[in-house]
Structures are given as C-alpha cells and as structure tokens.
C-alpha cells in the first residue's frame, strides 16, 4: 500500500474526512514519528509495533566493482519491531 492509497482508504472510510484532511492527518503522524526518531526517542504504537533508532558501527567493506577496501562510517538507522497483535494478524 502506498501513501496515496492509505489517504484514499482513510478518506473513503470516514465521511467526515475529505482527501485533503486525510492527507494532513497522515503527514502529521509520519512527521511526528520521524521527528521523534531524529531526536533519538522511541515510538510505540500498541498492537502495531515500535520504531527506534539503532547505531551501526563503522566497518570496512569491499567495493564489488574494483575490489578495493572502503571505510564505512558509523551511522544511525531506523528500526521497526512488529507488535504481537500485528504478527498474529499477518500469520493467520
């Protein structure tokens, strides 16, 4: 499902929300999650899952084309862990 499909489904499912309002709601939710992660916070949505930030160590890798060693600096990456209810729903 794409973001536009999510907006479409949200606006179709609720007579109160038009597409513009549904897009605003979706953007606020995703923006809030992104902002919290950028600040290093953890976001938990009960029954769905939790978002957190993990730090990856610096490492050396090989360029597959030339075979030379490349240093990859440490970085932070977003991580999502599914909640039990979502795992059970998907497993059915």
Describe the structure.
- The structure is a single chain.
- By secondary structure, the chain is an alpha+beta fold.
- It has one domain (3-91): HU Protein, Chain A (Irregular), CATH 4.10.520.10.
- It is 42% helix and 29% strand.
- The chain contains three helices and five strands, in the order ααβββββα.
- The protein has helices at 3-13, 19-38, 84-91; strands at residues 43-45, 49-56, 59-62, 69-72, 75-82.
- The strands form two sheets. It has a three-stranded antiparallel sheet with strand order 1-2-5. Strands 3-4 form a two-stranded antiparallel ribbon.
- Helix 1 (3-13) crosses helix 2.
- It is elongated, with a radius of gyration of 19 Å.
């Amino acid at each position: 499902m794409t973001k536009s499909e999510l907006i479409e489904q949200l606006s179709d499912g609720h007579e109160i929300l038009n597409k513009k309002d549904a897009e605003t709601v979706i953007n606020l939710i995703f923006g809030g999650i992104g902002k919290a992660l950028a600040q290093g916070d953890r976001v938990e949505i009960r029954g769905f899952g939790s978002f957190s930030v993990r730090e990856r160590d610096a490492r050396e890798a090989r360029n597959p084309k030339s075979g030379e060693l490349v240093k990859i600096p440490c970085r932070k990456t977003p991580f999502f862990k599914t909640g039990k209810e979502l795992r059970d729903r998907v497993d059915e």
